[in-house]
Specification:
The chain is α/β, with parallel strands linked by helices. The chain is built from eight helices and eight strands, in the order βββαβαβαβαβααβαα. The protein binds zinc ion. The site of zinc ion has 6 residues, from loops.
Length: 223
Amino acid sequence: MNEIDIHTHQVKSEVSIRILNIFAQDLPFLNDKSYYSAGLHPWHIGQVDPEECLESIEQAVGQKNMLAVGECGIDRLVSVDFAMQKFYFRKQIEIAKNHSKPLIIHCVRAFPELMKIKKETKSDIPWIIHGFHGNQQTALQLISHNFYFSVGQSFLTNQDKKEILNLLPPDRLFLETDDGNSSIRGIYSLAAQMLNISHENLIAIVHENFKHLFGFEKMPILI
Ligand SMILES: [Zn+2]
């Protein structure tokens, strides 16, 4: 078995299974040999036509290789109007709900709002926080709200995060390269070390989670 990369911006030949992130304004994505997710990133609202982006996502979401809606979410550190961010995030939650697709979420300094929105939208689709970087208290709250977590390089090279990583339920864990240069194999090595389990064991855990969330009865044919 190979490492699964749940969120990446780069096509890398070493990876057998990855979810390539496509920004909504770059849709349609015509490569049917690659899994992908598509979403309107909160940073891009104001630079693109958000309504057009929603339409493109709506069109893409029916494709078999489009596995999740996102990355989408909310970010306190950008100048984009926060109410507008929430508005378009909610729109994308609706699309994901209507098509039973998981959400891949970008959230920066807005976890209380994120939890509130999840509660209000009463969704039973999986919410995966990508590039999770929160503290222990945030992690515990998110666990109690049934979030899934994906972590990458910067989290895994910070020894202070070791305890937090070990708090995350193994059946809610994913790993990612995002827009970094590290290999997904390297990411798994760092995580396996922090979790004190074997690389193979970690691969098996994430495979199970992937099958469970994305509805694969058995692992899809590698591409
Ligand atoms: Zn990303």
